[in-house]
Amino acid sequence: MTTELKTLLGQAADRPATFTPDVADLVAAGRHRTRVRRAVISGATAATTATAVIAVLLVGHLGRTAPQPATIAQPKMVTDLCAKSDDFFRTANDDAWRREVVSTWTDKVVEVTDLDGAITVRRSPDGSQYAYCVAGVPINGRPLGGFGATLLNVGIVTRPYQIQRYWSMACGDEPVDRDDRSTLCMGVRYSYAGRVPEGVTRIAFSGLGQHADATIKDGYWVHRVYTDDIRNGTTDPIYITMYNDSGKQVFKERY
Amino acid sequence: MRAETEQDYVEFVTHQANALCRTAYLLCGDWRRAEDATQEALIRLYRVWGRIQRKGAVGAYARKVVVSTTLDALRRKSSQEVVGGDDYFVNETERTDPLGVLEDRLVITKALAELPPRQRACVVLRYFDELSVEETAAALDCRPGTVKSQTLRALEKLRTHPALAELSDLAVRG
Fold first, then answer.
1. Over the stretch A194-214, which tens digit does the pLDDT of each residue have?
2. Fold of B94-174
3. Chain B residues within 8 A of A20 when measuring between CB atoms
């Protein structure tokens, strides 16, 4: 049976014409596929790396030991934390543009500081671009940012109605010893920044049991809000309300 | 790919393309589909040629790619096209062939068409390409035991196929 089967299969696969593909076409198609595959793999690798970096940052952020309260007074002033945040770039986000912002964008448009840190809007040396910079005072003897630095976040403000928000661990306005590793801080400081929309003269914050206006200067605004428990935001969320010069509300949104 | 490596690929294609195409034909029953599948397999082979050549298993890998490409094409066909009964396994009529050979071709291609793809592949690789059980298992990416059982079932079906049984009788008488 099997011998006969082989004969039948051989007969069935016989034909006068021989299959001779164009080898040059095959090689060209193979080269093209190889190039495409390499490009796809490069893209996927970059995406995976970016995801891994984000995951590491999150783990580092969430994994910090909560500090204990203490009674030693905090530093009176927070001075230019962004400019001192070189460690962050070396370890977590060594980005030429961010380093340039920290080192050369020294023109501060508007800034608010508190015992937990600061948010600043900075202008580029040529005056054409603006960036925000969030910095934090170390907690529990360890700098914020997850990788041993005080700079928490930095980015460029591009869109006319962009509202930048960043939250970070904080101790609040009560004096604590930030170098004491037994210090327990469970608070969160929300940092906001943006460009003042045309016609808006006042930007008000409400929520977390607080009411306050953002600091506005030269067309940009910044603000920081503190809560001792991040879960408070679900029951008393933060709203940003914008008013024009006649006191009319022109914008209200939860952030 | 380096020039000499590419030249090896060109030589392989020049000498083996037709044989691979014949295997593909027995798997799908249509020369045009077989040629398409073979070309696709050869293009895929180009990408991994250097690595496969270093391993010294070019022929086996090429056959594996041809089988998978041909069977994949059949699977795609089932979801993308409406296939009509006996026309699924089309055999090209070649009026210049002797009548007996033509009948034999029709018989075996129809019998193969009634086998599930994996069983068909086992029969073709074992009895047309004369691969061992282990080589067939490698080509189909399965265990040798699976090849044995699939081949056994395929042969049982072929034995009981009416047209093939009749052919065997004629062959015995002749």
1. 888 888 999 999 999 999 999
2. Arc Repressor Mutant, subunit A (1.10.10)
3. 14, 17-18
